[in-house]
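[Automated response] Your request has been received and processed.

Submitted sequence:
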Amino acid sequence: MPSQGNIFVKDFISECIVVEPSMPVSKVIGLMKKENAYEVFSWVGSRVGTAIIRDILRAKNPTDMKIENLLIFVPKLSLSTRLFEATRIMEEYRLRSLPIIQDNTIIGKIDAKAIVSKIKDSALGNVKVSRIMTSSLVTITLGEKVSKAREIMLRRKIDHLPVEKDRKIRGILTSEHIVFNLITDYSSNKYAAGVPDTFKLLDFPVEAIMESHPLECEPHESIREAAERMLDEGRSYSLVTLGEELHGIITYRDFIKLISSREETNIPAYIIGLPDDPFEAEAAKAKFIRLVSSLSKFLPQIIEARSIIKTGSLGGQRRRYEVSVSIRTARENFRYTTEGWDLPMLYDEMVAAIKRMATSRKRETRRSRARPSIEGE
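Generated structure:
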């Protein structure tokens, strides 16, 4: 695999839909449905905007509204933009794709599907689903209206709503289900509208348009297995279940979060022994930065943070890691070492461990100070 410095968005470029900002939302929806697309791009002056399916949920009268009114303006990438910079922007803007520009022309996009495909084939593919899933799920009950689902998606900025009844999964409703089912005939721009700004569809129960057999995986599965099924079946999610119990969901965003870091730290932080796999290395760096950032709120006056990674293998097969972290503060030093198979996840475990260590030391210090002195000691 190429080194980290040599991975650019040009290696992930794919076709995209570019529309005029004056195009009616109704026509854009029809085009997106025809091409099975989640987003479109548009030039407005010198800026590039994007409209995603979830944005289109806001449109109450898509026949009269122009797509320009729903655009979010985003950074323009070049072919030489580094992949991991692109993933950080995607995470920050909560997007699945970004436009790639050359000679003031949108020549394509980089999207989450291509990145997920690379992640699953890297060493990160061995990470368990339970490690990256979103467990604090918002759900909706069978029989509730599509209008409520739409309101939840807009307020929570999500695209997927598991549908339950009696604590059992009955299906899933996505933003695509709502938007694409607003259309009765996209070629002739006919819409199911009760009054000019209200869709009859929104009064339907969610089961009218939900997916009754959602894609599922189990918590102990590898993200490689889950991603392969998502990509093969053209799904942007997989519910994480054990038996009939819902544990969480994984989406493209959960994969992107694994290798992106929006957090920064002014504390000198050094990491030695990163693996050759660029995706695994980037995920480890992102997790280490988050570790230092999190501990800085708990441990005042951190002077320096260091981590050393030692890599071993079992019979030449899957790699095992030993990771040590040293935190130097103005008053004392903390060192913790752990080992395991999933390198990025080891840093998550260390945050709690070092906090426990620091809390224990504080208690010992308080007990020592409270202990009465004995004359003659």
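Summary generated for your ticket: The longest helix spans residues 343-370. The longest strand covers residues 302-313.
If you did not submit this request, please reply to this message.
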